[in-house]
Specification:
elongated, Jelly Rolls, Arc Repressor Mutant, subunit A, 2 domains, 321 residues, 10 strands, five-stranded antiparallel sheet
């Protein structure tokens, strides 16, 4: 981003002056919401009839944990911005981009005078054009589809550690200038420009995977394991893929890459974990345990159980009861 814009962004805002003067030693909450609970309200920050707004992150004060009723895109222009999301500390550097859906709650550590972050606040309608510019088979498109469908099983945030990418910097600068100057057709221009930002991000995911930090796969695997834990009796990869708005092939491949096991192997491991627990801690008949763990074919159950534990279910119960 050009230095003249950075210098403009470094200027102390009225909100920051109130913090520095000691008049307010915490975030001026009335600016962000009319409610008592910490949820930033789009109506306070996005003009009526528009889909996107931008606001410089308030420095010199910790921003407490809060949610939003819109989609937030945090872009770091200079310095560092440290977020806490779901118990994880994420230190963003210049050029990095963080997407937060409406379910995400995060807090932000106090930023210094040279730490410049921009918060882009977007309503779902803003993403109609950018999403249409993306191929469906990538994590960013999947994230946006999940957000727009209000699917709470998807990722709550995406973090792209891009560093200084001149093309992305220039595109983000164009969006900022359009918002500040309020030019004719600026809303549509910004939608297409954001679509170009998304395409640049996707290109860097595909061509520089080692240099792109994402938390998406970790959350995807966590969701998969939670699903198996809760639905081990009748868990189905196709159903899970539909619930998570994932293509079956992408989900299957990701599970294998991240865990070293297929979905079927993870499910079988959970089922046998439950079966061994029932055998050692209850007096349920083995046939009932088999059904309770999702098995209908007794010969298959007995064969696989013995392969894993080297004893039959009956012998396992005797040894562990």
């Amino acid at each position: 981003m050009r230095q003249e814009i950075i210098k403009e962004l470094e200027l102390i805002t009225d909100e920051e002056k109130r913090v520095l003067s000691g008049e307010k030693q915490q975030v001026v909450w009335d600016i962000y919401s009319s409610k008592d609970k910490f949820e930033v309200d789009a109506k306070r920050l996005i003009r009526q009839g528009e889909y996107l707004s931008v606001r410089k992150h308030c420095r010199f004060v910790d921003f407490p944990e809060h949610g939003h009723n819109y989609i937030e895109i945090l872009y770091v222009c200079q310095g560092t911005i440290a977020n806490w999301i779901e118990g994880e500390r994420i230190v963003m550097e210049a050029g990095d981009i963080l997407f937060l859906n409406k379910e995400a709650k995060h807090s932000i550590e106090e930023a210094g005078i040279h730490d410049i972050g921009l918060n882009f606040m977007a309503l779902p309608e803003f993403f109609d054009i950018p999403l249409g510019m993306l191929n469906k088979d990538n994590v960013l498109a999947e994230f946006l589809v999940s957000v727009l469908r209000n699917n709470d099983t998807g990722s709550k945030y995406l973090y792209f550690k891009l560093g200084h990418e001149p093309v992305v910097d220039n595109l983000m600068e164009n969006i900022v200038m359009n918002l500040f100057t309020d030019e004719k057709n600026h809303e549509m221009i910004n939608q297409y420009t954001m679509g170009l930002v998304f395409l640049q991000i996707v290109n860097r995911i595909e061509t520089a995977q080692k240099n792109t930090q994402m938390n998406y796969h970790d959350i995807l695997i966590e969701t998969t394991m939670r699903y198996i834990d809760q639905h081990y009796r009748d868990a189905n990869l196709t159903d899970l893929a539909e619930d998570m708005n994932q293509s079956l092939s992408v989900l299957s491949r990701t599970i294998k890459q991240e865990t070293g096991c297929t979905f079927k192997e993870l499910l079988q491991e959970k089922r046998f974990e439950k079966a061994s627990m029932f055998l050692s801690e209850t007096d349920l008949p083995i046939a009932d345990i088999m059904v309770a763990c999702g098995y209908e074919n007794s010969s298959y159950f007995y064969r696989k159980f013995k392969e894993k534990y080297q004893v039959s279910p009956k012998e396992y119960r005797k040894q562990n009861k």
